Amino acid sequence: MAPVITGLSPVQGHDGVTMTITGTGLGATVVVNFGCRSLTPTSVTSVTVTCVIPQLPAGQNNVSVTTTAGQTSNSLPFFYIGPPAVTAVSPSRGPAAAAALSIYGSRLLTTTEVNFGNIGPAVDLVPASDTALTVVAPAHPPFAPGVCTDTVDVIVSTAGGISGSPGPSSNQYTYYNAPTVTSLSPSSATPGSDVTVFGTCLLDIISATLTPTAGGNPYQATFVSISPTQVNTVLPLTLPHGTYAVQITTPGGQSPITPNGQFTV
Asked: What phi-psi label fits residue 118: left (phi over 0), alpha (psi between -120 and 50 degrees) or beta?
């Protein structure tokens, strides 16, 4: 009886996964053919053959079986999907809260899950193409005292397997703890003078904002980062008289207004 195959499971995937071939007249199968590559099956019955999918060229590979009598069955298509790769995460840093971002790489279209280190899986996963997808990163749990950042690997799972690490930082995302302002020195100043800001997690500062406590438009101060607990600011020469709250913005967000973070001009 000539072998006939009627189904493959799975019909797409990657190497290392067990494939089940169903059909009739399969009991004498000695070889499973994936295109021009042949291998020995792991189990054989008259209606099923199992084997472990080998590494194959990406794309369609026709699967057939050959029996001890040298008879080769019809073939059915199997689509081999290589493992995904993550080459960039944008933005590559953000707050402890959940945040939307894009992931770039290759073979991303069949993505089923994106994990951020041991923080957990992303949500709202949308594969835009084979080279890009969007997700919402999971929120980071509360940071331990004194810890301001946590860098994690972004791992993508697809029908082709799990992404690896293509290069330093290219597949990583850094969570930032929110900054705080705890004190200022001096507490009163003149336009154009320096005010030193003390606080926590004053890392990779984006802006130093002077917000009038009586209301009105905020002003931006120039700044020089000294350490994660100190930043020196220079007040604008045009800063009007009044009371101002200093707010520091980092990738972790903007520091809240506090009484200890205020000065007068």
From this structure: alpha
Given 1.10.300.10, 3.40.140.10, 2.60.40.10, 3.40.50.12100, which CATH number is that of 180-264? Answer: 2.60.40.10
What is the distance between the alpha carbons of residues 65 and 264, in angstroms, rounded to a whole number?
A: 84
Q: What is the pTM of this model?
A: 0.82
Tell me whether domains 85-176 and 180-264 share a fold. yes
Please write the tens of the pLDDT for every residue from 84-126: 999 999 999 999 999 999 999 999 999 999 999 999 999 999 9
Nearest residue to 129 (alpha-carbon basis) of 106, 112, 99: 106
Residue with tokens 């705890």: 182
Q: Are 32 and 54 in contact (CB under 8 A)?
A: no
Residues 82 and 35: their CA atoms lie apart, in Å, by 16
- Return the number of other C-beta atoms located less than 10 Å from residue 45's C-beta: 11
**CATH code for the part of the protein at 4-80:** 2.60.40.10
For residue 49, give the nearest of 1, 81, 6 by alpha carbon: 6
Query: Rounded to an integer, what distance in angstroms lies between the CA atom of residue 105 and that of residue 88?
Result: 7
Label residue 239 left, alpha or beta by phi (over 0 means left) and psi (-120 to 50 means alpha): beta
Q: Please give the C-alpha separations between residue 232 and each of 177, 208, 247, in angstroms, as whole numbers.
A: 20, 10, 13
CA distance 27 to 43: 10
